[in-house]
Amino acid sequence: MKLPTQDQVRYHGERWAWVLGLALLAYLTFPSSAGEAAPLLETGKFADRDLIAPFTFAVSKSDEELAREAEELAASVKPIYEFQPRGLDSARVAVHTFFANADAAAEKGPQAIIQAAREQGVTLTIGEAGYLSKSGKRRNLERALDELLDRTLALGATGPGVLQVEQAQELIIRRRSGETSVPRDQVMSYAQYLTRARTVHPDKGSSVGDAVYLKLAGHFFRPTLVPNAGETERRRDELRKSVDPSKYIVRAGDRIVGAHEVVTSEAHEKLVALRNDLVRRGAATGRSLGGLLGALLRDGLVLSIYWVLMLFYRRETYRERRQVTLIGCLFAIVIAGAAAVSRTLPQHPELVPLPFLAMLLTVLFNGRVSMIAALILSVVIALQPVYHDTPALFLCVVGGVTAALSVKSLRRRSHLYAAVLVVGAGYLLGALALGLGGAWTAATIGWGALAGIANGLVSASLTILLLPLAESLTQITTDLTLLELSDPSRPLLRRLSLEAPGTYAHSIAMANLVEAACNRVGGNGLLGRVGCYYHDIGKVKNPQYFVENQTRGNNPHDRLKASQSAQIIKAHVADGLQLAAEAGLPDAVTAFIPEHHGTTEITYFLDRAKKSGDGGGLKTSDYTYPGPKPRSTETAITMLADSVEAALRVLEDLTPTKIEEVINHIVRTKVSQGQLDDAPMTLQQLEQAKQEFVRIISGMYHNRIDYPESSGGITATWQPAAKT
Fold this sequence. Notes:
This protein is mostly helical. It has 29 helices and eight strands.
């Protein structure tokens, strides 16, 4: 067995990666469901049967309930304040140091005391320094401050503004010996410390002494009760974590809700909890490894059917990565849309955007491609557990198939209205079939039909809106674009009709032939017609060098060498490709310009060159069109029609027999020259094309009766009156 090459692996891997991606998208977007064991019953609705707990499980509290309960418990924790004796020690040391320095500086006068105080961060006035220069005053102040610190900081005092922002009514005071719960208003604040300071004032009668005392009391204050935010938050976290996530326990065999009973909020909570437990146990699609692999395999196998069909029966699409990408994106849109519907209105699968995919694929490709895609996606959607209790498969098939059929021919805006009606009618019949079988009410059937009509309307609107983008991505030319290109007022066609009227008339005549023949053999008649309109646009560069645009007796080729004439004739292909590129014509239309000549010889000038004696240095390639040969049914028929139409203009007295013989001769010649080797046409199709040519041309060149000249008519012997 030959192993695939690296290029082959990459080629197919880029296309099959969509299957895995789409299966993963379905797994991630669709909600899990426990099917029959725990159906999604809404609160206030009636249960259609008894629902019994198959095993014991817990009903968990909601996230909001857990958060609320956790915060309530956390709020019950009293803030912890640590008693720190080093604050008292620091204050005492600072007081004694200050007064020791003041004692040393007192002998040098007030200025020395001011300097000593400044070194400890205290600013004194000259009067306050004079007050401190007295030994007795200093001793009294020092004793008063020691007493103040013992009465306040030793018991515990908080810093400025701390208690003002504290919300708790009780605090925990932690000392070495343990913790004590104290009301907040009994804990000393900085303001209360200053109030206590006044009660031990050593010299209340002296204003200067009062100022010095309060200044020193405030300066030497150190908080000895400090909030322990970390410990407080830790205790709160412990309480938050201690919240029991279970609201209550449902025992195995307990009835969750009885048949025909109203589903209460409590019963709904139990069903949700049971569904989640089933998911964890692997009894439903879940987020476990087994659930992931099972869902991917299930959906991937179904999606693979479509990719296999493309690989074997739609190779032209499978080969184009752009087209596979568009199909993958449309599949993803439908899957995501179905998942969104399942999370909001799972009872209305009529809203799944499957008609949009079917319409767009029909316009871009054909009805078979879109119909198979709709069927595959219908199965994928119906396989999702959330849709097990709904007629999703039936309604998706009805909507997708009717949408694919509704836009089989999209050439006028009115076709969109018909598409909406067809899709709506499909959903109506589907809802009616389900309603009659399931005893639905008329209102339920009506709402289903209205949802289907709305889906059809939105799908048709999106198809028209996104069609240009899809054409640009896939480089597919749709009928709507071809109809726009067939407008005679388009610049290229208008220029052709004005500057090369003979070529324009020739193109119109060819278009009628080609369209009829293409439709007969199963080709795209509209593409054939539009391709004929543009196949000779290169002739507008030098219209007078082509016989259909020349007046009698005025042929500029008579003044040129055969080789020069051949080059001018060949140039109309390159000129046409250039004009097509400038006008932005799609590739499908541009292909008609070189392929309708293929690699045939310019026989007239080749023969003239040989007769003129230039045969010695003659190169046949100089008298051969650059090609390529026709590679589609439409361009092959155009080649035949071009030769047939030109040949018949040379002959006189055309009869159906002569027309048929000419057509047979031209077809045999093109086949023998190998010009149709690359065209995907069978001998049967060639025969059908010839028959259509005979039918159309016989009608174009039919005989007319003579009208009497006496009544202003024209006869076969008519001659213009001689001028007098």
